[in-house]
Design a protein that fits this description.
heterotrimer; A mainly alpha; B mainly alpha; C alpha/beta; A: mainly alpha; MetI-like fold; two-stranded antiparallel sheet; flat; B: mainly alpha; two-stranded antiparallel ribbon; globular
Chain lengths: 292, 308, 404
């Protein structure tokens, strides 16, 4: 066997476990789901081929568009929030001084908490009667005089309430990604900019950020992928309310499959979500590659 | 690294404020888990506990689920007893069992993730595999798909393989979920090791396996530890998969057991005390895990094992 | 070499824990905490009778039971006995997911004493596919510390409302953003008044029944007077319950489980339970909710499963296990002389026998929850009741017509 051949085989063998796991536990269910989406699939009994009917039905259902709109609005609002906090703390923690590691590890702490736990914790904080955040807001003077202040009444405030929780939870990991990127920027650049008399802001804007592009891209792709797939935070905190204003696409998928027992359309919705995400990710990669 | 000259004041102020803001919810959860019910359920919350009680933790600790009973009515808090005439076993399942179950699955996920990710990352870095880029992208795709939408196909699959209601099934699923991160990290880690190192070792006649074990892995330790933390995070914190694919009470995972205790009773109750106590119980092990390993994070993500 | 052995040991530990089910083991999926004692009692009885049946209880809990059960059914997972929320049973029965138990039930001498409302939900084309198991009955709970004279009709409620509004206090609150909570504790007031949610067979949506509209106007009026929080449409179940237990709310709709819950808060609350009432207070009603017990088609041992159900419906199961732990028996012949039914329990038990008490029969419960919730929230937000009722009834009808 030629040397190249041996290398190829050996390499493939090394990746085999990963590929096996991927194929069995991910690709197979994925294709299965795609197959299901082309059928009317009752809980019991024989599935019936319906081709693209489920997709057509889904696109004609106004629930789909409502959830799509909300999911996009949520993504567009939470991503900058996350990013700003992340880049801010990343720049702060890039300083080589006493306490930096300590601060960094604190900012990352919320990340390791489970999403469900974090949702419950913040649900408790926001609790209209006993939540400390409501208490503080009232103390500052928010809220009507007869006392009831709730963030869950209005879809818009509910979303921002959840956004705050998500930012608290995930800014840490974005921060780490950005710090990793920051650390790979060579000091010469900063030297040069200091010699040229640039202010700190100018340095950040013209040198740091552009050089940080790959890390920013990574952080954004992960963030957006996660936001489009949002489920637990809204399921636990708002249950889609008020009046389904905060229902996300994945929530609709689960509801379609497990509450309404329409497995075919649920699978179709899953495929649709995936396609949307796929397209968005490709667009992002293209944008970043071009600028880079 | 940038150096701020003369802004120590700003630096420490901003950081301190941020630390307080970020730690506050965790602090609040903790004190909520130790306040007595009437201090907890009140419209005037207190910022440090005036009363102190361990009752929520006690409640969780002593919560048990009798699985089977023999003819002798079982008393609680007893460990396994085998009743002679019928051969049925008396078991009480407590939180410590749920804890152990989660620990087993997490450790299993960590081990599998490390093995699979290391080999894949290594292979993708140093070997000229056909369609290397395609394979890499394929391995990253799971982050684009919400696992929840694949539940029914996965369930059917597990049934066919016979892995429903088993630790191994859950471990496999968690490891698959970890593939994108794991392979990405390890490939990064190995990429930053100059190829020359490997070539030299090969020329000297060392076997590939030895190279990995003695040379590569030690250099990739930050990446490895990062994979470990993420694997622990994915597995320990998982709720949906653990809920759906584990049926027997003796294999219940910690998150599920805690949720049951807090949301149990009637359909509509939410016991804040038990909920916050359960959150702490679930949170603390992973904090410990993370604290021990967190200094390797940044290096793990950059993959810079070899300093320039 | 050493670490290879360690790895193999770990593997074998992991492998060895997947087990297969023996045929005389019964797999039971339950939703409530008392199920453990039920299973324990059953196993003891089996041993006493020398029968080789052992039941394994799998307590899944209320919150996600639906998802897990559906996934199990869809993949053919073996479940011998399942306790299902009664509102979902019509669908399962209709698609053939449950075993027929008509003959079994009819052979019992207490057959006609089984709670009719519950049994009806497990019936499809005259055949029974599920039996009543555990009843969750709704009613009002009034804090006599705040309301020394609980209202007996709507006019009295409105009077109290004016008093409370003048004092800036909350008379009553309900979970405006919780669809299950509202159908449990708000809709029955309309039923008492003569309204209905859907027609008896579930084929027609009837939210815009005039009597229902009347009731909703009554509640909306109370919001306008000011004794109900203006933002009640976003209140969750916990909000109103916590508020009541803290002594801040005069009365709330709740269920019989509250009898046990309120015991921890007696310093703030002096509880008085009563049924939902019509406008003049003469007709009472309740939502008869809870679980039905059924044998899924994926069972491995139907005979043994029937044995278990027999135990659940027996005196021992219903009284010694279930009522003792705070439940209401599902057999009306067990109301009399039941040592564990206190007066408070009897309020709920009697409500069950009221002709207006019921639970809606529908194949598409979850989907209907959407327009139902919107219906409620729009009214609590102040829109005209009749308009909203007409629009949402049409929405509900559309869903019913498009089938399952």
């Amino acid at each position: 066997m030629s040397r190249l051949r041996r290398e190829q085989v050996f390499g493939l063998l090394m990746t085999l476990p990963a590929l096996l796991l991927l194929s069995i536990f991910f690709l197979y269910p994925l294709f299965n789901s795609f197959w299901m989406s082309l059928h009317k699939w009752p809980l019991f009994g024989k599935p019936k081929w319906v081709g693209l009917d489920n997709y057509v039905w889904m696109f004609n259902d106004e629930r789909f568009w409502q959830c799509l709109k909300f999911t996009l609005v949520y993504t567009i609002t939470v991503t900058p929030m996350l990013f700003i906090v992340a880049i801010g703390t990343a720049l702060l923690c890039n300083v080589k001084t006493w306490g930096t590691t300590f601060f960094r590890s604190i900012y990352f702490l919320p990340v390791v908490m489970s999403f469900a736990t974090a949702s419950f914790v913040w649900l408790w904080l926001y609790s209209e009667w006993y939540g400390v955040i409501i208490f503080l807001l009232k103390a500052i003077g928010f809220g009507p005089e007869d006392g009831q202040l709730s963030v869950w009444t209005d879809g818009w405030t509910a979303m921002w309430a959840v956004n705050t929780m998500v930012t608290w939870k995930f800014a840490g990991i974005q921060m780490i990604i950005l710090i990793a990127g920051l650390q790979s920027i060579r000091d010469d650049y900063y030297e040069a900019s200091r010699l040229m008399g640039a202010s700190r802001f100018q340095t950040i804007w013209n040198i740091t950020l552009p050089l940080l592009r790959p890390s920013i891209a990574l952080a954004l792709i992960l963030s957006i992928a996660g936001s489009i797939q949002a489920y637990e935070q809204f399921q636990i905190m708002t249950r889609g309310g008020p009046m389904n204003e905060t229902k996300t696409l994945v929530m609709l998928t689960i509801g379609m499959g497990f509450d309404y027992f329409k497995l075919g359309p649920a699978a179709a919705l899953g495929v649709i979500i995936m396609s949307i995400l796929f397209v968005i990710t490709i667009i992002q990669l293209r944008l970043f590659r071009k600028a880079y | 690294m940038k150096k701020y000259s003369g802004d120590w004041y700003w630096y420490y102020t901003i950081n301190s404020v941020l630390v307080i803001l970020i730690l506050f919810p965790i602090y609040w959860t903790f004190i909520s888990s130790v306040k007595k019910p009437d201090e907890l359920i009140t419209s005037e919350p207190t910022f440090y506990p005036h009363t102190w009680t361990w009752q929520y933790y006690d409640n969780i600790w002593n919560y048990d689920t009798a699985v089977l009973t023999s003819a002798t009515t079982a008393t609680n808090n007893s460990s396994k007893k085998i009743h002679k005439t019928t051969g049925s076993v008396t078991q009480t399942i407590g939180i410590d069992d749920a804890f152990t179950n989660s620990a087993i699955v997490s450790v299993g996920t960590i081990i599998f993730s490390i093995i699979v990710s290391t080999f894949a990352g290594y292979g993708l870095t140093f070997f000229r595999i056909p369609f290397k880029e395609v394979l890499f992208i394929l391995l990253i795709t799971p982050i684009l798909v919400p696992a929840i939408s694949l539940i029914i196909p996965i369930y059917k699959l597990l049934k066919i393989i016979g892995l429903t209601d088993s630790y191994l099934g859950l471990i496999f699923l968690h490891t698959t979920a970890m593939l994108p991160i794991g392979v990405f990290m390890m490939r990064n880690a190995f990429s930053s090791i100059p190829n020359s190192l490997r070539e030299v070792a090969l020329l000297e006649g060392t076997s590939e396996l030895k190279i990995i074990g003695n040379v590569m892995l030690p250099l990739a330790i930050p990446g490895l530890l990062t994979v470990m933390v993420f694997a622990m995070y994915t597995s320990w914190n998982d709720y949906v998969l653990a809920f759906l694919f584990i049926n027997s009470p003796e294999k219940t995972m910690l998150n599920i057991a805690l949720a049951k205790i807090a949301l149990g009773g009637s359909q509509f109750e939410m016991k804040w005390g038990s909920l916050t106590a359960g959150s702490m119980i679930s949170f603390i092990p992973i904090i410990i895990f993370y604290t021990l390993l967190q200094r390797y994070f940044v290096r793990g993500i950059t993959g810079s094992a070899v300093k320039e | 070499m050493n670490y290879i052995i360690k790895i193999l040991l770990i593997f074998s530990a992991i492998f060895s824990v997947s087990k297969t089910v023996l045929s005389e083991e019964l797999i039971i999926w339950s939703r409530g905490g008392w199920s453990d004692w039920m299973v324990e009692g059953f196993n003891k009885k089996m041993t006493d009778e020398g029968k080789d049946i052992v039941a394994l209880n799998n307590l899944i809990g209320h919150a996600d039971f639906q998802v897990k059960f559906t996934a199990a059914l869809a993949s053919g997972e073996r479940v011998d006995v399942a306790n299902i929320d009664l509102i979902n049973v019509p669908y399962y029965a209709e698609i053939g997911a449950l075993e027929d138990m008509t003959d079994f039930l009819k052979s019992k001498d207490y057959y006609d004493k089984l709670l009719k409302g519950m049994l009806a939900l497990g019936t499809n084309n005259g055949r029974h596919f599920a039996a009543p198991n555990a009843a969750d009955v709704s009613g009002y709970v009034v804090n006599k510390n705040l309301i020394p004279n609980p209202p007996t009709n709507w006019a009295e409620m409105t009077e109290l409302c004016k008093q409370f509004a003048a004092d800036g206090k909350i008379l009553i609150a309900w979970p405006g953003n919780n669809y299950g909570g509202q159908i449990f504790t708000v809709m029955p007031v309309a039923w008492a008044n003569g309204g209905s949610w859907t027609s008896f067979d579930g084929s027609k949506a009837e939210l815009n029944h005039p009597k229902t509209i009347e009731m909703y106007e009554h509640y909306q009026n109370m919001i306008n007077i000011g004794c109900v929080p203006k933002n009640v449409s976003s209140w969750g179940w916990g909000d109103k319950q916590d508020g009541f237990l803290a002594g801040d709310i005069g009365m709330i709709g709740t269920g019989n489980f509250m009898i046990n819950v309120v015991k921890d808060h007696l310093d703030k609350v002096d509880p008085h339970f009563m049924a939902f009432m019509s406008k003049d207070g003469s007709t009472k009603s309740a939502f008869i909710g809870g679980d039905l017990i059924a044998i899924p088609a994926t069972t491995g041992n139907k005979e043994a499963a029937l044995e278990y159900i027999e135990y659940v419906l027996s005196y021992e199961g219903q009284v010694e296990v279930y009522t003792k732990n705070g439940g209401i028996p599902v057999r009306s012949d067990l109301f009399e002389g039941n040592p564990y039914l206190t007066d408070q329990h009897m309020v709920f038990a009697n409500a069950v026998n009221e002709p207006a008490a019921s639970a809606p029969f529908t194949y598409v419960y979850q989907e209907l929850m959407d327009p139902w919730l919107v219906f409620n929230q729009r009214i609590w937000n102040g829109e005209d009741v009749k308009t909203v009722a007409d629009e949402q009834t049409a929405a509900m009808q559309k869903i019913i017509d498009s089938g399952y």
